[in-house]
Design brief:
By secondary structure, the protein is α+β, with helices and mostly antiparallel strands. It has 3 domains: 58-135; 146-364 and 491-678, Multidrug efflux transporter AcrB transmembrane fold (Up-down Bundle); 377-490, Alpha-Beta Plaits (2-Layer Sandwich). Helix content is 66%, strand content 9%. The protein is built from 23 helices and 13 strands. The protein has helices at 2-15, 33-44, 61-72, 98-102, 121-132, 141-174, 180-198, 207-236, 242-269, 278-314, 325-353, 371-383, 398-410, 420-423, 435-438, 460-477, 486-520, 525-547, 553-582, 587-619, 623-653, 655-661, 675-678; strands at residues 19-21, 52-56, 77-81, 105-106, 109-116, 137-140, 204-206, 358-359, 387-394, 414-418, 446-453, 482-484, 551-552. Helix 6 (141-174) packs across helix 20 and helix 9 (242-269) packs antiparallel against helix 19 (553-582). The relative contact order is 0.12.
Length: 679
């Protein structure tokens, strides 16, 4: 008790030192082309490419120039470009190129391309917003990243403040002592504290992991504590000595707790196979959390229970949970119909989940009704959508660079190209320019082309254009070129995580199948358990397709492992109880009996996971976390339904096959109607 309490306190203190990364781009694989390109450009150039757009409404040309100078003075603003960098604004605007003007100045609205230091982006953006006022607008990857930081920090405490009372309410309704819910929450609270503190070993975690990790650990590991306490209460009826009762309870419940815990650990650990490093980030933290929950349940909880069992007895109350006998009989009657319906819809659901429209980047994480989205839409409405790419090539053969530059300008999506050969090399020798100006575009070894395209930061057209830039660059410089930019990052993210999908799912299914094979000692049961949970996963994921919803791919990829790992516990609990009952009863009696005996525990666990998902879905303004929450909640409900109705149908239909392929099954052939006859 002392050891765990001390470790929990120390862990809470250590958790404050864990860094949180809010930039999803940082989790691209190190071997991704855009990651290599960005690292190389950072080595060669001191200054990055423009990363935000700033719009100021209702200004004259002189006023726009004054705003430009004021923004340029902000510490952390590396560069700012406007119309005066493209044309001679001392001439009447009517005499200048209209296409060039409309990229920078429309109806007295000025648009600037600004490069800010991403290490100081929060402070820089605050100063820029103070300068441009409420009527101004700012958009870009740093804006999305800072928004994720501000909102997630505020929302985590809000979510915890909502979910803990709701889980207490569920536990009060489903337990028979007023003290038991506090016991469960204390045990899981210690495990969560240990997990948060040990995250320091990782150095930093992503904001998605920070926001979801604690809540998912709470929702997924409550079962273990419930299993152990239920077993302890049963054994106390047989043994007067509480320590003896706990010892026997630990032995009897160890198999169920370990099998449930290990399948959840494996489901989460499968995320580590993702190339996109957000997967390993979440996988390690969640798997570590479940392992710590198991250790806390098996070591800390027995001590805490033995110290408080007298108070548990004194605070007993009449259970509010129904017996579920009628539910068991009714569910047993409709199991065949449900099985037919599930098998009928699983094929279109499987096909539908493969045709969902996805978002991949940070821009797709912003809530549509947020200020960030409003600013972005305001800029796009006036100036159109825009995204910037940077292409770095060897500084050789100026003639080839000129041809390359001209071909880039001919691409229909391109609004402008900023390069040394375009703006300087044609007319002014570089020795007439300050070194600081020349170094922005060219160095002794490399030269850079900054391409602005009239495209959104993320779309199929943008991805096609990114590939087109790579093809054009390769035709001139073979593989000796580097393409970087927000859209290039998102394109690589799409290519990377699309490859991850099948791999992660297969690893999770394969590893869980092995655990079930060992735990259940059966060749057939792992197939039926996984078929049940995977069916609920496919139905869950297919809903966005049939409702026309665009889904963030990160959430889609993560939910397959989370739902599989978290809800296969229900199927394990049901199957273990069914095997016990099947030794005493024939299948017609064992099925409804098993449903009624396990429904309470499964409903309790499912309600906790559903509640956690709904809180994430409703409270979070980050689209990835919100969508993930909805998927978790819907997945938990579907898993509960299928485990209590579809799985019994499978067990009943394949009863003889299961008996032959399960070690020591000893299935009964007689009907025992009640406990007296069984005795």
């Amino acid at each position: 008790m002392v050891l765990f309490c001390v470790l929990a306190v120390v862990s809470v203190i250590l958790s404050t030192q864990v860094k949180v990364n809010y930039n999803i781009v940082d989790y691209l694989p190190e071997q991704a082309p855009s990651t290599i390109a960005m690292d190389k450009m950072n080595e060669v150039y001191e200054q990055a490419i423009p990363n935000i757009r700033v719009m100021i409404r209702d200004v004259t040309i002189p006023e726009a120039l004054e705003y430009k100078e004021e923004i340029a003075k902000v510490a952390g603003v590396d560069d700012i470009a406007w119309l005066d960098d493209q044309v001679n604004i001392k001439q009447p605007l009517e005499t200048l190129d209209k296409d060039t003007i409309k990229d920078w100045y429309v109806d007295q609205n000025a648009l600037y391309q600004v490069t800010i230091d991403e290490e100081k982006q929060k402070e820089v953006l605050e100063e820029i917003k103070d300068i441009i006022g409420e009527d101004g607008a700012v958009s870009g990857n740093p804006v999305d990243t800072v928004n994720a930081q501000v909102t997630s920090d505020a929302e985590v405490s809000k979510m915890v403040g909502i979910i803990i009372p709701l889980i207490f309410l569920i536990l009060f309704l489903t337990t028979s002592s007023w003290l038991e819910p506090f016991l469960f929450m204390t045990v899981i609270g210690v495990a969560i504290a240990l997990n948060l503190g040990t995250n320091l070993v990782l150095g930093e975690i992503s904001f998605i992991t920070k926001t979801t990790g604690m809540i998912l650990q709470l929702a997924c590991s409550m079962d273990y504590a419930i299993f152990l306490l239920d077993s302890f209460q049963e054994e106390r009826k047989r043994y007067q000595n509480p320590q003896k009762a706990m010892s026997v309870a630990l032995k009897k419940s160890l198999k169920s707790i370990l099998s449930s815990g290990l399948t959840t650990v494996v489901g989460f650990a499968a995320l580590c196979a993702m190339q996109l490093r957000i997967g390993p980030d979440m996988g390690i933290v969640l798997a570590k959390g479940i392992i710590l929950s198991l250790l806390t349940t098996l070591i800390f909880m027995p001590c805490l229970t033995l110290m408080s069992y007298k108070w548990i007895d004194k605070t007993r109350h009449r259970s509010i949970m129904p017996s579920f006998q009628k539910f068991g009989k009714r569910a047993s009657k409709v199991k065949g119909l449900v099985a037919a319906v599930v098998l009928l819809i699983i094929v279109p659901c499987f096909l539908g989940q493969g045709k969902i429209s996805f978002n991949y980047g940070v821009s797709g994480m912003v809530s549509p009704d947020s200020k960030v989205a409003e600013d972005k839409n305001a800029i796009n409405d006036i100036f159109g959508e825009s995204t910037i790419f940077a292409i770095m090539v060897p500084n050789e053969k100026v003639a080839v660079q000129q041809e390359f530059n001209d071909e880039l300008k001919e691409l229909k999506e391109v609004s402008q190209v900023l390069s040394y050969v375009e703006t300087v090399g044609k007319t002014i020798p570089d020795h007439f320019l300050p070194k600081s100006d020349v170094s922005l575009l060219t160095t002794a070894d490399y030269t850079r082309f900054v391409v602005t395209a009239r495209l959104p930061s993320e779309s199929e057209k943008t991805f096609d254009f990114a590939q087109k830039l790579r093809d054009v660059s390769e035709s001139y410089f073979e593989e000796d070129y580097y393409l970087a930019g927000e859209s290039a990052n998102v394109y690589d993210m799409k290519l990377t995580i699309t490859e991850d999908s099948v791999k992660v799912n297969m690893i999770a299914i394969g590893a869980i199948a092995v655990i079930l094979l060992v735990m259940l000692k059966s060749f057939s049961l792992p197939i039926f358990l996984l078929l049940t949970i995977e069916s609920s996963v496919y139905i869950n994921i297919a809903v966005p397709y049939f409702t026309g919803q665009t889904l963030n791919y990160i959430g889609y990829l993560i939910i397959t492992s989370i739902q599989l790992g978290a809800t296969v516990d229900y199927a394990i609990l049901f199957t273990n109880r069914y095997l016990e009952n099947r030794k005493l009863f024939d299948k017609r009696t064992a099925i409804p009996r098993t449903i009624s005996e396990t429904a309470g525990s499964i409903f309790t666990s499912g309600a906790i996971l559903t509640t956690a998902g709904l809180v994430l879905g409703i409270v979070s303004s980050n689209v990835v976390i919100s969508q993930l929450g909805v998927l978790i909640a819907r997945g938990a409900i579907l898993s509960v339904i299928l485990v209590l109705i579809f799985l019994p149908a499978l067990l009943s239909i394949f009863d003889k096959f299961i008996g032959k392929t399960t070690k020591n099954s000893h299935f009964s052939t007689s009907i025992l109607l009640d406990d007296k006859e069984r005795k």
